[in-house]
Design goal:
The protein is an all-alpha fold and 564 residues long. The longest helix has 30 residues. The protein has 20 helices and 4 strands. Strand 1 and strand 2 form a beta hairpin. Strands 1-2 form a two-stranded antiparallel sheet.
Length: 564
């Protein structure tokens, strides 16, 4: 037990050390300050902007920024869908795979364009190398960069700056952040045994019977794997994702994956602190989220270490819950990975979330309901500050003052947008389709577990889609017309409606005249206000979904405790 907790603590220390360093670098990039990569990347970026006709000095309004995102994503989606439908005639198809069904191709396209990577297929048996390299891996860069761009535009708006230019932000996010780190990460993965090849699967005789052969899938995995984690994408090259030894061969690669998926979301809070010239507030908010993150890890870890009491009774001793887990990672690294991947909206898995104890099911669902621990790529930081604006409004009502955030008044438009964004859209795109599916469990849902766990399976799938996470309580028969189309609605609604709301909110804040601070001004860089923000998050965010949690993992926990 002690060894597992020590591993977790050392990983947490690395996270705290990396976040301010990377956050400062991201701030330098988007503030136009000098960086170590200038001499190499300035000519490349200038060439990109000249060829594309992007006017780097042109600033966009909130609607213009949103429209640029929608149009560029639409073009990329059409290209991705075409690639899937013509997969059978494209090169690098070593196993002669045909095109998927139109509904699966549509779901896959929408899933990867929205940075979700929810997979209703098995990677090595459904997609060719061409599709993986030119389609999936390409979208892993662009969808992640889109999230970073939105996060930076939101930060600019909050701090009184113009929102910027989406095409410039998208380019810089790829060339300055995602691509350089991914190259280094891919080399590290190759060094520890992750394959990077275009060779066909290797056919070998089995150990049980030399007369029986088995095909071992290979592929260009290493470069794919690192951007999968760094960009909070999460879609696996192989069906079992980061539990596969070719995606995640050992403890060191597992550590790299955890650090990769959490590095940018944690760093963006510090980037805000530099833009706002208020590092104290950034550290306070970082600390608030970090405490919640650690608490969630402890809750999940205790459940997995103590194991299933029903199984322990049969064995006559206490044993960790190792069902659905890789022995090379054990209960501790599986719990840490699960909380991190659902907290950062990455969605990669190194164990089967469906097999976790109710503690883990409760936490993984809660992460996707809240979306701020640490949240999606760029958008998670924006969600965090949207909650802060809501906390300012609530506090202002309590003390009878006009609420202000960073010297700008919070008025009706900001309250409507934040409430719409945080309290309406997310529940709607999760709970309504989940209710429809649960009303027809045999015809639509395809549930493989009865009772409370079956409810969690269905809700998890829609929460994963709406939160742009992509992981799942596996066991659902999800490659059906219903699941592919209904989750596509949640994918689109959970991605683009909040992005538009965030950009409009930031645009409105950027246009407000700053108000001079007085002795009555509510300071947002205090422990008291940070505590109020945590309360608002837990009350307004968590309680929205509490009935679902009560009917799912909480009820399941009571059932197991009763011995049922």
């Amino acid at each position: 037990m002690l060894q597992g907790w020590i591993q977790i603590c050392l990983t947490l220390l690395l996270i705290v050390a990396i976040a301010p360093i990377l956050g400062s670098y991201i701030a330098r990039v988007f503030l136009g300050q000098k960086t170590i990569l200038d001499s190499v990347l300035n000519p490349l970026e200038k060439l990109i902007f000249n060829l594309s006709g992007v006017k780097t000095e042109a600033q966009m309004t909130g609607w213009q920024y949103a429209l640029a995102i929608l149009l560029s994503n639409l073009v990329m989606a059409i290209l991705m869908f075409s690639l899937l439908m013509f997969q059978g005639i494209l090169p690098f198809n070593t196993t002669n795979l045909s095109a998927p069904s139109w509904d699966l191709a549509l779901h896959t396209t929408i899933s990867f364009i929205t940075n979700t990577n929810q997979q209703h297929y098995s990677g090595e048996t459904a997609l060719s190398y061409s599709t993986q390299i030119f389609g999936i891996a390409f979208l892993m860069f662009t969808s992640a960069a889109t999230g970073i761009a939105v996060g930076l535009a939101f930060i600019r708006g909050l701090t009184g700056r113009a929102l910027g230019n989406f095409y410039v932000d998208l380019t810089l996010a790829i060339t300055r952040i995602l691509l350089p780190i991914s190259i280094i990460g891919a080399i590290a993965f190759i060094a520890v045994g992750v394959p990077e090849t275009l060779s066909a699967p290797v056919v070998v005789p089995t150990l049980e019977d030399p007369n029986i052969s088995q095909a071992i899938a290979l592929g260009p995995v290493a470069h794919y794997e690192f951007i999968k984690q760094l960009g909070e994408n999460g879609g696996g090259f192989f069906a079992i994702n980061s539990a596969h030894p070719f995606e995640n061969p050992n403890g060191f690669s597992n550590l790299l994956q955890i650090l990769a998926m959490i590095s940018i979301p944690t760093a963006m809070i510090h980037t805000y602190g530099i833009f706002a010239n208020n590092r104290k507030q950034a550290w306070l908010l970082f600390g608030m989220v970090f405490i919640l993150y650690v608490a969630f890890i402890i809750i999940t870890g205790i459940g997995e270490y103590q194991g299933n009491p029903l199984v322990n009774t049969l064995l006559g001793s206490q044993n960790p819950n190792l069902e659905g887990k890789e022995v090379r990672f054990g209960w501790a690294q599986s719990a840490l990975f699960a909380v991190t991947t659902t907290g950062t909206m990455t969605g990669a898995v190194n164990s089967l979330h469906d097999s976790f104890m109710p503690n883990g099911g409760f936490i993984t669902l809660s992460n996707m309901f809240l979306q701020i621990i640490w949240g999606g790529q760029g958008t998670g930081t924006a969600y965090l500050f949207a909650y802060s604006i809501l906390a300012v409004f609530v506090t202002g009502l309590m003390v009878g003052r006009t609420p202000e955030f960073l010297g700008r008044k919070i008025e009706k438009n900001e309250v409507v947008l934040t409430s719409f964004l945080l309290l309406l859209i997310h529940p709607i795109v999760i709970l309504i389709p989940a209710a429809i599916a649960l009303a027809f469990p045999d015809q639509l849902a395809g549930i493989s577990n009865s009772g409370f766990h079956g409810l969690s399976q269905v809700v998890y799938e829609y929460a994963s889609a709406a939160a742009n996470n992509g992981s799942g309580f596996e066991g659902l028969a999800d490659n059906t017309l219903w699941w592919n189309l209904s989750t596509s609605v949640s994918l689109l609604g959970g991605r683009y409606i909040p992005i538009i709301a965030l950009l409009l909110l930031a645009d409105g804040m950027s246009r407000k005249q700053p108000v001079a601070m007085t002795t009555g001004t509510l300071r947002t860089d205090t422990v008291l206000f940070t505590t109020v923000t945590a309360g608002v998050i837990l009350v307004m965010g968590a309680l929205t979904f509490f009935p679902v949690l009560a009917l799912g993992p909480i009820a399941e926990a009571f059932l197991i405790a009763r011995g049922g």
